[in-house]
Amino acid sequence: MSTRLASGGRLIDRETPIHFLFNGRKFPGYAGDTLASALLGAGQQLMGRSFKYHRPRSVVASGHEEPNALVNLGDGGRFEPNQRATVTELYDGLEARSQNHWPSLEMDIGALNDLAARFLPAGFYYKTFIHPRWAWKHLFEPVIRRSAGLGRAPVERDADRYEHYHTHCDLLIAGGGIAGLQAALVAGRAGLSVLLLEQSPHWGGRSPVDGATIDGAEADDWVKIALQELESLDNVRLRLRCQVAGLYDHGYALAVERLADHQPGAIPPRQRLWRIRARHVLTATGAIERPLAFASNDTPGVMLASAVRDYVVNWGVSPGDRTVIVTNNDDAYRTAIALHEAGLVVPMVVDARPGVGGPLAETVRALGIRVESGKAIAKVLGGKSVGGVAIAAQAGEGAVLETVPCEAVAMSGGWSPVVHLWSHCGGKLIWDEVSALFRPDPARPPTGADGSAMVTPAGSANGALLADAVLADADAQARAAVKALGARLPKSAVPQVETVAEQPLAATWIMPQGAGPALRAKMWLDFQNDVKVSDVQLAAQEGYASVEHAKRYTTLGMATDQGKLSNINGLAVLAGALDQRIPSVGTTTFRPPYTPLTMGTIAGEARGVLFQPLRKTALHSAHEAARADFEPVGQWRRPYCYPRPGEDRQAAVVREVKNTRQAVGLLDASTLGKIIVSGPDAGRFLDMIYTNMMSTLAPGKCRYGLICSENGFLIDDGVVARIDEQTWLCHTTTGGAERIHGHMEDWLQCEWWDWQVHTANVTEQFAQIGVVGPKARLLLETLGGMDVSKEALPFMHWADGRLGGFPVRVYRISFSGELSYEIALPASQGLALWQRLMAAGEELGVMPYGTEALHVMRAEKGFIMIGDETDGTIIPQDLGLSWAVSKKKADFLGKRAQQRSHMTDPDRWKLVGLETLDGSVLPDGAHLPAAGENANGQRNVQGRVTSTYYSPTLDRGIALALVHRGPDRMGEEVPVQDGKGGTVAARIVSPVFFDPKGEKQDV
Amino acid sequence: MLMLTCPYCGIKADETELTPGGEAHLTRFGPEASDEDFESYLFQRKNPKGVHFERWRHAYGCGKWFLAARDTATLEVFGTYPAQSKAPPKRLLTAIRRKRPGWEGWE
Amino acid sequence: MSETYAGYVAVSAARPGGMVTLRADPGNGKVKTALTKLAGALPEQRKLIGAEIAGQPVEIAWMAPDEWLIFCPRDTAADLVAALDKALDGLHHLALDVSDTRLRFDLHGAAVREVLAKLTPADMAALPLAEMRRTRLGQVAAGIWLSAEDRAHVIAFRSVGDYVFTALCHAARPGSEVG
Question: ipTM greater than 0.90, yes or no?
Answer without folding.
Answer: yes
